[in-house]
Write a structure and sequence with these properties.
This protein is mainly alpha-helical. The chain has 12 helices and no strands. Helix 7 packs across helix 8, helix 10 packs parallel to helix 11 and helix 10 runs antiparallel to helix 12. The relative contact order is 0.11.
């Protein structure tokens, strides 16, 4: 190959490192790390001003988190918090998806049931917690009900929308192949609706975490809610914020894991 043939390729080769650095700078993981770093730096700065005597720095919060982990109180609190959370989420997912599919397939059921969940999604559900306490006491049942009323509306309505918005072309294709009603539901409608249903599950899980902490703060202090309330009462603010940070991190990791599962099952083109 002659030198004149190599000349046009040389500028492209010289630009490759710059292009690689630019691609790295806009990589989603890098941008997320930058975002978290900025947030943590602002937290540290606000704690050192100080923004408030009750607002610790990020490093003090990390020290408090280490103390909670070392004495085992954080692990015990999580075990208590996960009990109503897991039960409430399981009930919400099973009932929510079932009701959403039923309403999506049967319009009279939608007219009958959907308004209840539309109102529930728009209403300030935290205001219902005292009513649940009055009806079910301060035990496990009231906390499970709180998780359900927070998580179910978004799961039901997302599932309803997913089933209702099945592409007509897919339904016509199934009819052209003489598929029965059950075959169309099993092989066309549910697979088509699955990505949106799974997105609703992620939103429902986020609402469930909010619900379980509200229940532990407003019904009876147990688990992570007890850690938050107790450390606030004794003015141990680093541990209080450490308990809040721990449940936020756990919920973020849990929802991120669900998103990874969703991408693996329903978005194969996005697999790493």
């Amino acid at each position: 190959m002659q030198t004149s043939e190599l000349a046009p390729a040389l500028p492209a080769l010289r630009q490759t490192p710059a292009r690689n650095w630019r691609d790295l700078a806009i990589h989603p993981l890098v941008l997320r790390l930058v975002s978290f770093s900025i947030a943590l730096a602002l937290w540290e700065y606000a704690g050192r001003i100080p923004l408030s005597p009750a607002f610790p720095t990020f490093l003090e919060t990390l020290a408090g988190l280490g103390s909670l982990i070392a004495d085992g109180s954080l692990f015990k609190a999580f075990m208590i918090t996960l009990h109503p959370l897991v039960i409430g989420l399981a009930v919400s997912v099973v009932l929510g998806v079932s009701l959403g599919v039923l309403m999506g397939l049967h319009q009279p059921s939608e007219w009958l049931i959907a308004p209840l969940f539309i109102i529930a999604q728009a209403a300030p559900l935290a205001a219902l917690i005292p009513i649940l306490t009055f009806a079910y006491g301060i035990g496990l049942t009231a906390k499970i009900m709180t998780v359900c009323i927070m998580a179910m509306p978004v799961i039901v309505l997302n599932t309803l929308g997913a089933v209702r918005n099945t592409p007509q072309s897919l339904l016509e294709m199934s009819r052209s192949f003489l598929a029965t009603r059950s075959q169309s539901i099993r092989m066309v409608i549910l697979p088509s609706a699955s990505p949106m249903i799974f997105a609703g599950l992620r939103l429902g899980c986020a609402a469930a975490f909010i619900g379980v902490i509200l229940a532990e703060l407003l019904i009876t202090p147990t688990g992570i809610g007890d850690l938050i309330s107790y450390n606030q009462s004794v003015a141990d603010y680093p541990k209080m914020y450490a308990a809040i940070l721990s449940i936020i991190l756990f919920s973020v990791l849990f929802i991120e894991a669900l998103e990874r599962i969703e991408h693996t099952l329903f978005r194969p083109e996005t697999r790493a």
